[in-house]
């Protein structure tokens, strides 16, 4: 079930170490030029220095704005992580339902029953992989880590991919575009929703369609008597409901960014504060105004840019959630569940072992000896 060929997370802008510094290079160059200009004018032409009381007044407002920006962005990041932790838990639960709790079908051979169980586990795994791609605006089924899991399902995404052979071919980026993305230049960044806008056929909702297929399987198991215990039936249906809740919750996080008015206002206030720094520092620092402005701007702008960096936690940047790792974890744990040999005719067989010491340390006698 696990697929070691799944692509690893990589920064779209090449931020291999997760540092925000590359995105700050252009702003810091602007600040350096500006502070040098103001310092030189004040030194050789006319003193432009003002009282630093404005630092205190504006600093309070900027601090509030940056605090709101950062806390809002991290709240979205943490909420995305909670949903994926819940997905791991629900996948484990459904895996146990299909592999351990479900009884043998009386009209199926053991080999066919085994293949059916493995297929159910693969379908559970396919939900997490499909959700990962959907959150990254990759709506098709032909991706390397997904195609073998859902290729047999009749879905909108499969039909759409068949009508567009180029659907997964990424356009080559020229040198200037790559450099622009690395430096965080906004007009150089690609639109992540481009694949959705270019689609000529309905894309559907692949994770939702997978939930529908899982619902059909659970209904059939209940009808066939494979889940005779009411609590097991409740667990299965509750897990399906939780999958739906996870899907809609992650979509809400993705599609509800900070209102644009807040983003613009906070950015403008921050930049106004940074650009006024040389005027307020010159009287005290003179030539040291230049490095002081650079250092202060780095601290202030770094907080602003970090909020933007983690606002969408489902991307491919180093600072985003490692969705590939979560999918691999789910695949590994489903493999662990499937590795258990369930003796349905003799459910207590694993207890009848000479390594089972039920009365240790009072007695070293094994279970068979005591029996």
From TrEMBL:
GO molecular function, one term: chloride channel activity
UniProt subcellular location: Cell membrane
Signal peptide: none
Keywords of the record: Cell membrane, Ion transport, Membrane, Transmembrane, Transmembrane helix, Transport
A Pfam family per the record: Bestrophin_2
One GO term describing the cellular component: plasma membrane
Listed InterPro entries: YneE/VCCN1/2-like
PANTHER family (alphabetical): UPF0187 PROTEIN YNEE (PTHR33281), VOLTAGE-DEPENDENT ANION CHANNEL-FORMING PROTEIN YNEE (PTHR33281:SF19)
Species name: Verticillium alfalfae (strain VaMs.102 / ATCC MYA-4576 / FGSC 10136)
Membrane topology: Multi-pass membrane protein
Name recorded for this polypeptide: YneE
Domain of life per record: Eukaryota
Main localization category: membrane
């Amino acid at each position: 079930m696990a697929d070691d060929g799944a692509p690893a997370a990589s920064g779209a802008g090449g931020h291999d170490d997760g540092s925000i510094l590359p995105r700050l290079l252009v702003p810091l160059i602007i600040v350096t030029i500006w502070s040098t200009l103001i310092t030189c004018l004040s030194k050789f032409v006319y003193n432009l220095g003002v009282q630093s009381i404005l630092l205190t007044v504006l600093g309070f407002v900027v601090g509030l704005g940056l605090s709101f920006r950062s806390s809002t962005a991290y709240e979205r990041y943490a909420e995305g992580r909670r949903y994926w932790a819940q997905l791991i838990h629900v996948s484990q639960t459904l895996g146990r339902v299909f592999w351990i709790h479900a009884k043998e079908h009386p009209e199926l051979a053991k080999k066919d029953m085994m293949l059916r169980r493995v297929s159910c586990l693969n379908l559970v795994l396919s939900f997490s992989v499909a959700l990962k791609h959907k959150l990254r605006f990759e709506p098709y089924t032909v991706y390397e880590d997904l195609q073998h899991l859902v290729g047999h399902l009749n879905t909108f995404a499969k039909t759409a991919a068949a009508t567009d052979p180029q659907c997964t071919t990424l356009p080559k980026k020229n040198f200037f575009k790559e450099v622009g993305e690395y430096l965080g230049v906004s007009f150089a960044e690609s639109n992540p929703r481009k694949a959705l806008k270019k689609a000529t056929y309905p894309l559907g909702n692949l994770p939702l369609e997978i939930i529908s297929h899982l619902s059909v399987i659970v209904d059939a198991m209940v009808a066939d008597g494979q889940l005779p215990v009411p609590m097991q039936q409740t667990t299965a249906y509750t897990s399906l409901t939780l999958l739906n809740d996870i899907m809609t919750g992650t979509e809400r996080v993705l599609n509800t960014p900070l209102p644009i008015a807040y983003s613009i206002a906070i950015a403008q206030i921050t930049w106004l504060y940074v650009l006024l720094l040389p005027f307020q520092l010159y009287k005290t620092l003179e030539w040291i105004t230049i490095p002081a402005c650079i250092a202060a701007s780095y601290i202030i702008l770094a907080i602003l840019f970090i909020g933007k960096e983690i606002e969408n936690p489902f991307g491919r940047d180093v600072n985003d959630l490692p969705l590939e790792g979560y999918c691999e974890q789910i695949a590994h744990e489903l493999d662990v569940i499937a590795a258990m040999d369930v003796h349905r005719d003799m459910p207590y067989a694993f207890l009848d072992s000479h390594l089972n010491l039920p009365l240790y340390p009072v007695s070293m006698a094994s279970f068979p000896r005591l029996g």
